[in-house]
Amino acid sequence: MNAAAAGPVARIEGVGLVFGRTRALVDVSLDLPAGTTVGLIGPDGVGKSSLLSLIAGARAVQTGRISVLGGDISDVIHRGAVQPRIAYMPQGLGRNLYPTLSVAENVDFFGRLFGQDTAERQGRIARLLESTGLAPFADRPAQKLSGGMKQKLGLCCALIHDPDLLILDEPTTGVDPLSRRQFWELIDSIRSARADMSVIVATAYMEEAARFDWLVAMDSGHVLATGTPAELMARTGTADLDAAFVALLPRERREGYEGMAIPPRTTQADGTAAIEAGGLTMRFGDFTAVDNVSFRIERGEIFGFLGSNGCGKTTTMKMLTGLLPASAGTARLFGHEVDPRDMETRRRVGYMSQAFSLYTELTVRQNLVLHARLFEMAEDDIPGRVEAMVGRFGLADVVDALPDALPLGIRQRLSLAVALIHGPDILILDEPTSGVDPVARAGFWQMLGELSRRDGVTIFVSTHFMNEAALCDRISLMHAGRVLISDTPAAIVERQGAADLEAAFIACLEDAIGEGGTAAPPPPLAEAAETGPTRSRAFDPRRMLAYTTREALELRRDPIRATLAILGSLILMFVIGYGINTDVRDLSFAVLDHDDTTISRDYVLDIAGSPYFIEATPLTGHADMDARMRAGEISLALEIPPGFARDLARGVPVEIGAWIDGAMPSRAETVRGYVQGMHATWLARKARELHGAAATPGSFDLVIRYRYNPTVESLIAMVPAVLPMLLLMIPAMLTVLSIVREKELGSIVNFYVTPVTRLEFLLGKQLPYIAVSLLNFLLLMAFAVFFFQVPFTGSFLALTLGAVLYAFVATAMGLFISTFMRSQTAAIFATALLTLIPSMQFSGLMDPVSSLEGAGALIGRIFPAAHFTTIARGTFSKGLGFDDLAASYWPLVLAIPVLLGLAAIFLRKQER
Amino acid sequence: MRLANVLNLGIKELRGLARDTAMLILIVYSFSIAVYMQSRSVPDALNRAALAIVDGDQSTLSTRITTAFYPPHFNPPVLIGEHEMDARLDMGLDTFALVIPPGFERDVAAGRMPEVQLNIDATRMTQAFTGGGYISSIVGSEVREYVDRYRSAPMPNADLALRARFNPALDQSWFGAITNVITSVTMLSIILTGAALIREREHGTIEHLLVMPVTPTEIMLSKVWSMALVVWVATAFSLLVVVQGLLGVPLGGSLTLFLAATALQLIATTCMGIFIATIAGAMPQFGLLMMLILMPLQILSGAMTPRESMPEVIQTIMLAAPNTHFVILAQAILFRGAGFAVVWPQFAALVVISAAYFFLALAQFRRFLR
After folding, report:
1. Are A306 and A415 in a shared domain?
2. Per the domain annotation, does A105 fall within a domain?
3. Confidence label for B203 from pLDDT (cuts 50, 70 and 90)
4. Contact (CB, 8 A) for B198 and B279
5. Which of A702, A907, B254, B324 is most buried, judged by most C-beta within 10 A?
6. Where's it found, cell-wise (chain B) (predicted)?
7. pLDDT at residue number B156
8. How far apart are CA A473 and CA A461, in angstroms?
């Protein structure tokens, strides 16, 4: 490789990176040679990923300077210019892929992001899928691919635009040895086709690093050493990279490292099987995750389990622990069949799951104590036991720290301590050491050795590391739900006639898959036809539509989100239409009639005869009135004084007492209005009866005309006013989620490292939800008009125009809110608070905007929902059209660029 | 089932919550600032209603009427010409338009029964009725006072002494404050429990629990009691400090009785949180589902508008929701000072509903863990 061909592909000068109190990178200076494969080696959390994301431009440089492809990556213009030449595949299996999209759709999306036209994309996709062997699976959703295939797909997506710099962050973690080898062969073939391409890879597998041209060994934010693999080994005088890496560590970090070794088993089998699986099978629907797996593990044995992610290891372990009931077959622990309900067996098992799964909100000590208690240890024994565990696993210094603040190695020790707190006989460990540095791993295995050899604990462990597998007493290789081979490591190597365990496994896998393995080397990637320099346009509709298409596909394939998006608003409209009802009808009232004359009865009859009130049994006295009002039985109580009829006839002033239940003030107000009205009418009638029809001075007629809603029905008043609320909340929330989801799942990185501009991203995300919003609008309209039978009197066109503008506003508001949100949960609440409350309280749904005061009045004037309420009510009930409502459109029109602009300003094109 | 496990796991939940700053802020906000703000910002039923008057008479009497409308119930009336009236109502500038015809004063004095027209924008339901009532009584009393000097024969003279019980001034903020507390109780208990469950699932800790000698019932109960306790304490605080203290709302009945009911309500809602969380599986779905459940729960429970004015079917369906009973009970206890003798049916309903929800949620939770 011609490393000296040009200047470095990336020059890193004094770069530091701090997250809160953690220093991820400390003053790193480094030149990465161009045209070679550069490997960053070291365990998790040493700064490899941070460095790669800085080089890729996905993360903003804090201190120092990084030049990539001949310019400062912090410079926005340079970054824009070189981004089309860089490909970045972040850490985590398929983290930047879209699980519901098919293989072809995923690659297609990336092609669009780089502004390629259909013909170009199709050609490239076909070539890439062909050469990676993914062509037969082009229509399979990414989430249903195996780990190895996901990595290949990730690679296809990265290579779609012929990058000059390929940055791969731990591309093979969690992939089986065969897929791993195929992956690197693929990279080699690409490199041979494009010799000037530079590749930067981070890896935790030292075996893998041996094949790279140039290595950078890193530890806790520092560069330990650089050079070719041979140089590093020569410098440290070691035979393999694992040992070389340890030797490069500062003295205090490698203390206690004695290499990886476990004394052979001395206490030979006493015949008791600790774990026994017989024909264990697990089916999920028509997918068989574990297929007829049998094995027998003796007491005190260390039994290793190997296989790629998703081959059924974890499922098998879950069946052994009783987490999953087996579809068929049996699992026995100490001769007892595993029964999820049997608490006794659980007490004999310690389990350490793949991901760190202790409570990060509890301190180390609290975690230990909690688990001890849950295992029902005697309260007196707990402190002693916790101390013992803390001492044994070297946790004394961190006993009051939160797990999140601890390095991975220590967290793994804590997990082990927790799994052992109750002194189990069997320990089940699911990939306990992935990502842990070699020193910690060696220490960890030493502990396992002690547990097995000294304490006689049976250990069932799964791993990806061959040097760990070699330490086990026996190992099983699993693939696609089946156990391929099960024997001692030495016997497996011997049987396959292979040089080492890895080769032996690859041979096994090839036999199982039944393909010639590397027999058919992938066709080299045809050097892409020169398409000319892809000029980065300021606004490329193709890139925008890439997001639109993808978003639409994802929404369609997420049944919950899609259904809620459409049915949600209908349900809510139904609820609100019927629920927010201010009609007051059939209220019960009771009378305490001391007079009991025809006149007094006539008075009561007037009220009882109205549709608003229903008379309840008369009151017997004040105590009765009090009790019944307290119980909420009657909303109105009337007391007619003695001599009412007589005094009335004489013109002596009399007073009728009326008590209204004021618990619900709005209802009380309405009741008061009714009663007052009826009282006045009754008096006027009496006056005429007493004094004849002769006109009395002072009488007049008050004619009330209920405009727009002559029957004064709540539905007619509410339904048009609910539209703005629903059409704001649901589209805004979906839009917010569409962006925050990407932030949370990690696929936002595609926005960071590709030439997509902020506006393209925002608009692309917005468009599908505008469509959803309009669909919602039509559905709600149909529901309002046909189901609720709310008369529509105005211009439908005028309302539709308002709805279109409003859809833009609502989704733009979602975009704006999303820029401040990191987690989906927070986003949902914030959106609900920010859309629901103002649109319910300050937009004229309940109280007219003209009646609001202070801050409420201000919100009512600028909040878009208030203006759309005017449009909706105007067109629905008031028979209005464009001309009458012109003043309400402008605020909406204005809100769109303002909100979009704010969203674009606050949206970050890089992670910080 | 071991109570020790339930206790230990519950304490773990509380410790977890103590470190979740966002949730703590949400709790404090919902029970203090939100309650305070919303109760203060909701205007009274008839607050600053927009009234326009078309004064075709321009007489002493019509001027008298015009000056009789003033804040807080009405904005000072806008005097407009008849031709402007429709457009202003269309634009929503006015809610009421009163038309006093030419010769009104003369006709009133002569007993010729002149006609005053009141136009009401009936799309604004909250003000339409009450405002209409106010306006007609104000106009009536002005006219009566004016013509008193012309009166000769004794008129039937009966006064209506209207008093509102439990809230003499019909202060909306009292109602708003309590409604808000109820809303917060329901919302937070669902969110806290649901989020606690989903967080465990996402972090994989629930699997860890299951390999230990802990049963699903214990796991669920621990979440129910711990989160219910948090909300319960927050409710008590909110009522005592915010509602009674800051807002000065006099609470009619026994706070103890209300808090006992709150505890029952919380069992039902926390179980609901568990149930929704198991169906949703992930936080975003949970959030969306919650909106669809929470809003009907609040709106149809009678907390915002009177239950009796909803369609019969909905009233019946809503009997299955704890909120309905809780709202009835809260209004009875807190406003009307009702005692247990009055609200026992609601208590009984809450007990039945909480129990039913608990077993439903438990069954669903077991299915979810499988």
Report:
1. yes
2. yes
3. confident
4. no
5. B324
6. Cell membrane
7. 63
8. 11
